[in-house]
Amino acid sequence: MSVGKLIGASLGPGDPDLITRRAWSALHGGARWMWPIRKKSGESYALSIALAAGLTPPDDGIPQVFPMTHDAEILSRYWLLAAQAVLQTLNSGRDVVFLVEGDASTYSTFGYLARTVRALQFDVVIDTIPGVSAYHAASARLGESLADTDDTVAIIPAAYGIDYVEAIVHQFDTLVLLKVKPLLDDLIDWLAQRDLLQHARFVEKAGSSAERVVTDVAALRGTKVNYLSLLLVRNPERQRGAVQKGCRKKNEQPA
Amino acid sequence: MSVGKLIGASLGPGDPDLITRRAWSALHGGARWMWPIRKKSGESYALSIALAAGLTPPDDGIPQVFPMTHDAEILSRYWLLAAQAVLQTLNSGRDVVFLVEGDASTYSTFGYLARTVRALQFDVVIDTIPGVSAYHAASARLGESLADTDDTVAIIPAAYGIDYVEAIVHQFDTLVLLKVKPLLDDLIDWLAQRDLLQHARFVEKAGSSAERVVTDVAALRGTKVNYLSLLLVRNPERQRGAVQKGCRKKNEQPA
Fold first, then answer.
1. What pTM does this model have?
2. Which B residues, 115 through 174, put their C-beta within 8 Å of a C-beta on chain A?
3. Contacts of residue B145, Cβ cutoff 8 Å, sequence gap at least 6
4. What are A58-108's pLDDT values in tens digits?
5. 3-state class of A93 per DSSP?
6. Can you say whether the dihedral through the CA atoms of B142, B147, B152, B154 is positive or negative?
7. Which domains are present in chain A?
8. C-beta of residue A181 within 8 angstroms of C-beta of residue A227
9. Which residues of B touch A227 (CB under 8 A)?
């Protein structure tokens, strides 16, 4: 009997129409569905995307608990449990499709799960289907470029704080500040001080039906925002170094 | 008569199965197709993705020339021509779907086109459909995370050179170095010197049928690579600042 494969199906940021054709096929291919939840009997954002697409999870679909903690010992215990559940199904000859919100390689539990599965059984086939990330959806919604030609982009969980953002801002055309909730007021002060407020946009639950866009970012001071929120900041003052001549020259040849 | 809208349809990095359901619908919605080419009678990578999906461009589909140059005067002349062609169709009451490779907000000609259209006619409705980017496809293909929890990511056109990469590497867990072709040997030397060679992966034409992955990056020294190539570099030595306590604490609450 052959061993099944593990498919990481990125479902995009929330709008079921942003599911790729390949992830869509994976959901319909007879693989056993698994999806992450934060706690027993909790909601799954990843599963909610499939439900919003009008799909019904197969009867034998099972949630896997990935608690929201930074405690490495607790986390690895839950990764192990989930990996064992995955392997039990794979070793019965059936594929597993693991539902992932956003993109499976980007701030996702799927990476940890896949590594744990591999650690237990090194020759398992893992097929990761890439997806649309929240910051690409946010840029599209705003109708603004994340990056134009030669632009540099930094993607930063805002928890690193103002000093970090201040240290790198000069080198980047675009800052994507993720999970800004706990630092939002400090970030607004910093943007004002750097004269970047008018170049900042706030997007909550980007790419979902509950999406909220705020262009007057200063108006958010003192308000509560969702955990799934980000700031896109364009930095028109970025000091650009000289682009390598050879590169420009070669770039001007047709591909 | 109502004015049509401009749809920027991101088709993903090349594999037609990575087209989203929404872009797929847009291709089938009766809008007039337009697609970018580098020079008259040249190939269009964006169109080739739709063709690879088995689609046939409608008879009235038209290519728009976006020459590969950094000359701002030449570029703006071609953006203007394309924007005028778009507006002519929109003002006849018909939608235009503009085919875009990768993600429309990220290193794409679509941003320039959309801004030029808006400059000529400010109230045009523009609907940007986000897509899967090449670096997400590359990460998925490698089965490696672009970012794990709290990781920072820098996306950099390599043309900025070694000094730039050296200046920021300490602040980032992942570097995405784009268009590495003209600098590849210098980058390999730098990776070796920084002891990062074993953490670097090369991907050419990520997410397309001609995709090529090279894990022994040093072996590429002195060879020719395609223009559409990137390096993903993980930096295990990154000095992490303290994560804000409040953030961690709040992050540990379920969303």
1. 0.93
2. 126, 128-133, 136-137, 139-141, 143-161, 163-164, 167-168, 171-172
3. A105, A106, A108, A111, B139, B151, B174
4. 999 999 999 988 888 999 999 999 999 999 999 999 999 999 999 999 999
5. coil
6. positive
7. 6-129 (3.40.1010.10), 134-234 (3.30.950.10)
8. yes
9. 250-251, 253, 255
